[in-house]
Amino acid sequence: MKSYKFLFSVLLLTGVSFVLAPAASAQDKQAEYQKQLEEYKRKKAEIEAKNAEKAKELERIKRENRKKKAYNDGNRALRVRKYREAITKYDEALSIDDCFAPALHGKGQAYYRMRKYRPAVEQFTKAVGCNPQDFKSYWWLGNTYQKLGKYDDAITAHNKAIEINPNYEKAYYSLGTIYLSKKKNFKKAEDAFRQATEVNPNYAKAFGALGDALDNQGKSSAAIEAYKKSAALKKDARVLYRLAAVYNKLGKPGLALKAAQDALKVKANYAPALFEAGVAAKVMKNYTQAITYFEKAAKDRTWRKNANWEIEDIKLKMKSE
Description:
This protein is mainly α. The chain has a domain at 252-321: Serine Threonine Protein Phosphatase 5, Tetratricopeptide repeat. It has helices at residues 2-14, 26-79, 83-96, 101-113, 117-130, 135-147, 151-164, 169-182, 186-199, 204-216, 220-233, 237-249, 253-266, 271-283, 287-297, 301-320. Helix 2 packs antiparallel against helix 3 (83-96).
């Protein structure tokens, strides 16, 4: 006891002062506990939110992968002409995303190839509704309308494809075929086919069709050049036959016979080429050769009547000469 009094005296003499800290109250302890509890709840909620977001993203990725797999399976089935299977797979993809334009496009193609044109129109229309920049679906929509005989709707769809992609040569070609074969507007057909060849200078089919459009307008020289360009790019019996027909019309049987014979090298016994070869040989007074060509052409019922008439006419000429 004396030692404590001595120590206290010394502290007073040296000027050292101190305050005894009061013991923490129960209220303070409760406040500290509550603060720690709130921090714990906050961190827990933060972790749970992050985990929920990760789970949501994982589920999204899984759904996306299922969608892509179903779509790719549909494409594989479409390529091997298993159209019903393709539709089933595309529907599986669409059950995950009902506005997945590629699957709608594929489904439309499957219906088109099954010759179910009305359902095809429905799918292509949905595809462009989900993706307004899908120029290929517009082109397919135009082709489908052509099959249904809705040529004005087809022209609108093809023009829309061209508006989106001015370099899409297939749309120009399809547009030209409507003007050529259905509308009989040969100038518009010429413009469309010419545009296709400007976009793609190696588009043999378009050069051939351009020749048809020019020939129907009486532009024989231009038609010949178009046919020759087409034939230079790809040997096509129909194009060579049409070239022979123009040469015959211009009174150039030698060139006509050569073109017809070139067509027959591509497609033996091709009745239109046989007929034009016969016409050329007849003009050149190679009657035996002409009769041989006409007899072969007559085996095709489409050309039989005209070929037989030519044979009879040659026989009369041979008698009179």
